Amino acid sequence: MANCPICQTKLTENAKYCAECGVRLEGAVNERAWIIAMQEKIKSVRHNDVVYSIVSTIGLLIAVTVPFLMRFVLLYTMDILSWTITGVGIALFLGGMVANWVDDRNVKKLITILEKGEPQTEKPAPGDDNKTDTE
User: Fold this and answer.
1) 47 φ, ψ to 5°?
2) Alpha-carbon gap, residue 11 to 74, rounded angstroms
3) Domain ranges of the chain
């Protein structure tokens, strides 16, 4: 008798699915590798969310702090440099927010694909060094 490659439960001789974890035994190793790859993609995209949140926060701080300092602390009016720095802060804030929104959409799409359990066959990009099992 063989063991399930995922949960190591003992299997009957003609089993097509594991009675314990339900994995299809033909191609189970490939399914497991695909699931792990999808989880890594999701983790990578979520890591980017942290970076974009930091960029967005820095931008917001710049956009609010510079005009406040110029007007109320230094008692100057806003000059061209102050407006430029404020504009950069606003651009960073908006860019970080848009990037977060796009990443959230990507995470939801990856989670949907993972929940469906359907590995998508992707054509390798030109110059991609990843080798397949048939090579």
Assistant:
1) -65, -40
2) 77
3) 41-116
Q: Is 41 exposed, middle or buried (0-12, 13-18, 19+ CB in 10 A)?
A: middle
Q: Is residue 90 scored above 90 in pLDDT?
A: yes
Give the residue, 100 or 3, on which the prediction is more confident.
100
Inter-helix orientation angle 80-116/28-68, to 10°: 160
Q: Are 4 and 28 in contact (CB under 8 A)?
A: yes
**3-class SS at 52?**
helix
| Secondary structure letter of residue 25 according to DSSP | S
Mind spelling out the 3-state secondary structure of 68-107? HHHHHHCCCCCCHHHHHHHHHHHHHHHHHHHHHHHHHHHH
